[in-house]
Every structure is written in C-alpha cells, then in structure tokens.
Amino acid sequence: MREIYVHIPFCARRCSYCSFVSGFSHSEMPMYVRALVREIDNRLLRDDDISSVYIGGGTPSVLYRGAISLIMSHINRRAKVRKDAEITIECNPDSVTPEFVSEIISAGINRVSVGLQTTNDALLKQINRPHDLNGFIRAWELLAPIDNKSVDLMLGLPNQSKADLQNSLKFVAEIKPRHVSLYALKSEEGTPLFRSGFVEDGDFEAELYDMAYNFLVSNGFERYEVSNFALPGFHSRHNCGYWDLIEYYGFGISAHSLLNGKRIANDDNFNKYIVGTNVQFTEGSDPKTEYLMLGLRTKWGVNLSRLYSYGLDLVKDRGDKLNEFIKNGYLIRNGDTITLSDGAYYVMDSIISELI
Amino acid sequence: MDRLSKIRNFCIIAHIDHGKSTLADRLMELTGTVALRDMTDQLLDSMDIERERGITIKLTPVRMKYEYNGEEYELNLIDTPGHVDFNYEVSRSLAACEGALLVVDASQGVEAQTLANVYLAIDNDLTILPVINKVDLPSADPEGVKTEIEDVIGLDASEAPLISAKDGLNVSEVLKKIVEFFPSPKGDANAPLKALIFDSYYDNYKGAVCLVRIKDGSVKVGDKIRMMATGLSYDVTEVGIFSPKPIPTEELMVGDVGYVCASIKNVSETAPGDTITTAIEPCLEPCPGYKKVLPVVYCGIFPADGSKYNDLRDALERLKLNDAALSFEQETSAALGFGFRCGFLGLLHMEIIEERLEREFNLDLITTAPGVNYRVCKTNGEVVTVTNPSNLPSMQETDHIEEPIVSADIYTPPEYIGTIMELCRDKRGEYKDMVYLDKTRVKLNYIIPLNEIVYDFFDSLKSRSRGYASLDYEIKGYKESDLVKLDILLNNEICDALSIIVHRDKAYQRGRSLTEKLKEVIPRQMFEIPIQASIGSKVIARETVKALRKDVLAKCYGGDISRKKKLLEKQKEGKKRMRQVGSVQVPSEAFMSVLKLDDK
C-alpha cells in the first residue's frame, strides 16, 4: 500500500511567509502538467496499491481546467487506486469556481482543504493572501457538494490578537468543517516576512495554541496531531500515513518520496523538470528515529514493540529519560504505547530530542 | 684562570616588545652561531604561544663564539622569562649570570616590568649594561631614554650602545661591550662540583634535562651526582652546551653554562635553584636562594566532554613533565563530573596552561573561577588550607578564615591615579605609598587580597588606564578576613562548580551579577528554574528562568522529514554538550561566562 503526493508550484500570488517552491509563471502551467504526467507514467508502478492521493502546493486550484482531471487520469491509468481512497486537493478561496468544483468532483476528489488562515481581512491583506472573508464564504458555498472539508487556520500572525483568533475559531465552529489544521506562523529565512524583521513570540503563540486547543476540543474536535484536529473519523488519512511511515510517491518539483525504505527528493529546478533532466537525491531512511519523532506527534503515540523492531529499545536504551518524562507527567505509558500528555504537545521537541 | 677570563655569562632584560628576542637573534647571527638560512624570527622562543604573546616561558641558553682582539671568547646568553608569575625563575637564571643587557625601547622608555627585573638583577649583583633599541624609529628619543635610565634606575647610561636590533645597526658594538664591560665568572676549578640549576625541561629520550651554570669544579659523563635540595642521586649520562641546539661535550667546567642529563624521570626532581654536586665529595654549601615553588592561584579544569577525562589527565601529565610549578589533583564536581583542581604560579601561568591544553592537546575545557589558598582556623583549633570552595568547612566549625594578601605595585601615568585608586579601594586594597618616578610615571603601592587580584583586577586596571597601567605583585602573607562561601542554586540545588569564596561586603553585589548573568545564559527548559545566590541558608539574590512554552516543529509532512530530523538531531547534540545540575541543563558557556562579570 502506498500514497501519492502531487506538487503544484503555482499560486495567484505569494504569501509573505511562504518558503515553499512555488510562484512560477502561469503561462508555464501546461508544460509543467505535461512533465508531471510524464513523471507519473515513468515512476508510478503499474497496479500499485494506492490508498490516498494528495494534490498540494502551491495552490492546485489555480490550475487551468482539465489539468486536475489529466493528472488523476494518469494516476488511475497506471495504479490501482482503492475505491475508498482519500483524495484531497488544496485550494484557495479566490480560485474556487463552479467549474473547478465540478471538475474535481468528476476527477474523483473527495476531500478539500481550504486555506482560510484568519477571518480578519486586515491580517489577510498584511500577509498577502489573495482572498478576504467574503471570498472564503462564497468558495465554501460552492464546495458544499464535497462533505469532507478541512480549514487551515494560522496563529501567531503579526499583530494577531487573541480576539482575532477567537473570532476565527467561532466562525469555523459555525461553518462546521470536518477537519481543522492549525499552524503557527514560522518566519523562515528568505521570505518577505523574515526580511521585514518579524520574530515569532513563542510564549504568546503557546497561549494562542492553548486557547484554540480548548475551543476546538469543546466543539467536538479531537487533536490527533499537534497541528491537526478532526471530528471523529475525519482525520486526514494521507497525512497520518506520513507519520506512520507508509510509503509514498512524491511527484513534481521538490517533491519527496519514501519508496523501498529510501527517502528520495526531486530537485527544485523548474526548467530541468520541464525538460525531464531533473535530478533525484536519495538517502536511506532511519525508521527508528523517524517513527519516534513522527509517532509522538500524534494521539496514537509510539508502540514500543514496533520501535524495538526498528532497532531502538526505548525502555532499555533511554530508560532514565523515559522514566523521568513519565514521572514529570510529560509522557504517558499505557502498556506497549507511549503518548505525549496534553500539556507536553507544544514542547515536544525538548522531549523527542532526548529520546532519539 | 685564563680560561675563565674568556667566558662571559649574561642575560637580556627587556619589556615585552622592546626587542629582546630580536637582539638575541642578531647576536647569534653575528657570531655565526646560527647560519643565516636557519634563522626564523625569534629562535629562542620555541613554543607557539611564546612567539604569539611575545613572552618567554621556558628558558633557552645559547653559547656563542666571539673573537675579540684576536682572542676567542665564549659568550653564554641565558634567556629569562618576562613575567611576574615567573619571578622566581627569573631570579634563578639571573643568578647564573654576571652581566645583564637592559634593552630599552628608544621611544617607550623604561617600563614597569623592566624595573622589577632590573631590581632583581641588582639584587643578584649583576653588572648591567643599558642598550637603547629601536633608535631608527622616528619617535625615538635615545637621549631622553638615557636620562630616564639614570634618573629612574640610577644606572650610568653614558656607554649604552644605540642600536636597532631589527636592522642589525650597532649590534656588533653590543658584542664588544659584553666582553669589555661584563666581569668574567669566578670559581674554583679544583673544588667539588657546585652547579646551579636555573631551569630544566623534559626530553622523551634523555629524561629531565638540567640547565646549569657550573659555579665550582666540573662534571662529566659517568659522574655520580646529587641534588642538594632533594638529596636524590643520579649517574650523569650526558653533558653538553647549547648552540643553540644541544651539543654533547666531554665535560662542563667551572664558569660554563650547559646541560646535564642523568636519566632523571621528572622535572620536579630538578627544581630551579637547586644545586648539583658530586655524590662522593659534596660541596659544603649549596648555591643560595633556593625556594620550593608553591602555586598561588587555583582553578578547576574539566573536559567539556566528560568522556575526555583521560585525555585531560594525560595532557596535564605531559605538561607537568616540563613544568614543575604546575600542580594538579583529581577533583569531582557534581555539575562538571571528573576533572582536576590545578595550581598555578599566577594568572598568566594559568592562562598559558589552559591555552596549551586547548591548543596543543585539542581539548575543550570548562574552567571554574580562579581562587586562592585560604587558611581556615576551625573552632577545634585545627587549621586547614582550602582552595576549592566546596571543601570549605561549615560556618559552625569555622572560627575565622585568613586569605593571602599581596603587595601590589601599580605603575601608571598620573592621569589615571584617581580611577586606579578607586579600583584598589573597591578591591579592598589598603593604600601604602605613592611615588612619582618621573613626570609621566607614578608607582602606587597597595596591600590587596590576592583573591581580588585573581578575579578581574588586571582587566579592570587595563581598561581604566587605557592599557597604560601595569601591575606587579608579591605575596606578603595571610590576613584574617570576613569571607563567606557564596553558593548558586539552580532549581533549589547547589551547583558546586559555581560556588565562590568572597568577602561578605562583596557577596550581595556578586550574587546579583552572578544570578543575572546565569539567567541570560541558561536556556529555558520545560519548567521554571529559580536561580538563587545564597550564603549558608540565606538567599541574597534571585532570578527566574521562565518555563519554555514552545518547542515544536510546526509542520511535519512528507517533504520535511529529513530536514526536521536533522534539526532534532542537532538539538540532541546541543543537549549533549550541556551539563546536568540536578534537573537543570546548563550549557558549558554558563560556567565560563561567570568568570568575568561587570561589577557595577
């Protein structure tokens, strides 16, 4: 069983905090899509068992009509995509049109993730998002035929107050998505945000996070990963696959794959990708570290026997630290399973870095 | 007698940068001791640190042949270390000479350090020939400097050669004067052997090599010798001279300067100032002035990486082979693990050892605050000496504590007198004397606790005087003082490596600056960390490191995993370099950063 990720490096405009590979000229979309389907045809194993597809970016919804269908048809032509597969596309409110919605439905897409970020128009403008709240509402109505929808929210935006986040959360509770992703803004080098001198305020961010966590939980959402909340049964199966070390194909520039125990990265050279001379970098995966660092991010935690099978005997090799963390209430041991306590989620790196 | 009249033993006294090593190089060149092609600058300073700092730590004698009026003379140049920490070593090497060249920079004039060594030379009855160097510089004022030498030191400078060691100008004049001006050595060739050890070094093949000046008699291979201070006997395996590389000879005779090897295992058996004599027919009196060298400054040295303990021990043992003044014993700190409490002659000696450990042995070190030897008089009448604050007896057991005090001479231009006196007062100094040496130089004399000198006195002195003031000190004894142990508690546990012994009046100030500094350098952790300074059970200062609220990688999906794994591994590596004090992780820098605090 494998998953597929498809990277679409185009956007209506670039958000001030974005450090992803994106923002190429829209006139190059057809060439890119041709290269993409070529890569799919070349690399995707015939009849491979596919449990989920995720089309992300960038902003896949800015693609011209027919592109999504073409990509999906190439995937379906080669691999065996399961009947109950989760097939997700990311979209931005401003590029959601009736035509887009009908195309993705006919292409078999059954889950959408919409970037709202905040309901405060002034903040949206400040981070250079191309939509406003009304635009989101319009898009949300158009997407009504798709039941499984997720909303992205951000916290820690420049000048974002607690009240701003509270308003966004209340709005989300009203429109009732199945899933909410809640990301802290990160000021990455090379972004306009970073150049503007913005520095994250970890303490305030943690307060906002705690507030959002409490709100979402009291509204029936469950935190199944540090940044992801879902109504029961609606967690993103695709993303859970990453944290569970399920193998996946990554198609498109800068996309990563985990195949046959190796992590493979496509380079990020657009022109080479177009002409098919791009390079892949391969490194061995390190399942014991990866499983530990990823598993602990989730509500399912890590299974000690599975970790042992990867070569790490946590109880024996890290016994002192493990017991200290359990004693101090940061970790919970339940038989063969270790999970983070609620209070430890937002400082988990301090814990994980001691265990790996 | 004729042989002795052809020998001259001399040393060079100079302030740092006044050109001692350069002059030595020129002398060797002119006498053909070293072929021009073998010249690298400053031949005598063989250690990297010596060359970089422009100081001499280990002595290197050299024999030069010089023809004067058709007769061949043997000139032995004995180099001297140029720092107050090595005062005793200087005095021993001076005792091996009859003459001293006093090199003075023609534009800088006489400096404090030069003075101290000149007085040592006068005490040792040396004939002193002033040499004015760097006369080619535009700012040179040879006549002014001559007057200064006459006024300040009281030496006749009328015959002083005016030279430029760098260009070789007039250096031959210096050679001539050495023969004419300096007395030849005296001694009895037929008396029992009496040889002064003025230094020694360790050689992997020969063992400890004694650098000696033969005062009476002679020594050759096969002789049975005895060290008069230690009483230990050895068989001589090799004798020789330096030219400047060691060259074996058949015999060293009265008046000679050279080396003696006798399969001696350790330089601690060849203490400078000791006298070598024959085992069978010893001389009656040893050379005067022998002292056992005792360390005065102590600090803890720990490997930054605990697993390097054995490497540190090996390195210290290697250094000790060549440095009898270095002492060390194993010390265990709850915070820093296994390491050593090391004793040094002074702060420079300490810095040099630390630097050599890091540089020559590639070790990362954590050092604790330098301290001194305290004398604790207990209520039960017992007197113990304590160098490590952790070993201080409890207040209940202590009647009183005494600390070493020094007589400090500070030389400064007059405009800084005010600020320096303020510094000395602040350092619990007791004013003794002030002398105007000339219009531009004042000597201040204070009695100051050594404890204050080792803290940051020297740096403060330099910054207050824009680098012009210099310091020379001498241990004067012990004095009762109201000293307390200041502990630092991290999350309510004492961190032994941060404890210091300090005067009660200074404790509050120091406690505050320590806690403030630690708050800056200890990273936030998952719980709140109180940082307290306390005397006994009384907390006198407190700061808090707030609990860490956020430490999480925001997004972690397919593409990120390799990169984020690396970030976590880096974080893990960072933690490895931390020291665990109770539940608190303390970076190595924290221990170092408290060594130098800005006292306001």
Short description:
The complex is a heterodimer of chains A (356) and B (600). Chain A is α/β, with parallel strands linked by helices and 356 residues long.
Characterise the protein shown here:
The complex is a heterodimer of chains A (356) and B (600). Chain A contains 15 helices and 15 strands. With 356 residues, chain A is of the alpha/beta class. In chain A, helix 1 (29-43) packs parallel to helix 2 and helix 6 packs parallel to helix 8. The mean pLDDT of chain A is 95. Chain B has 600 residues and is an alpha+beta fold. Chain B is 25% helix and 34% strand. Chain B contains 13 helices and 32 strands. In chain B, strands 10-9-15-6-7-14-11-12 form an eight-stranded antiparallel beta sheet. In chain B, strands 20, 21, 22, 23, 24 and 25 form a six-stranded antiparallel beta sheet that branches. The N and C termini of chain B lie far apart (66 Å). The model of chain B has no long low-confidence stretch (mean pLDDT 87). Chains A and B meet through helix 8, helix 9, strand 10, helix 11 and helix 15 of A and helix 12 of B.
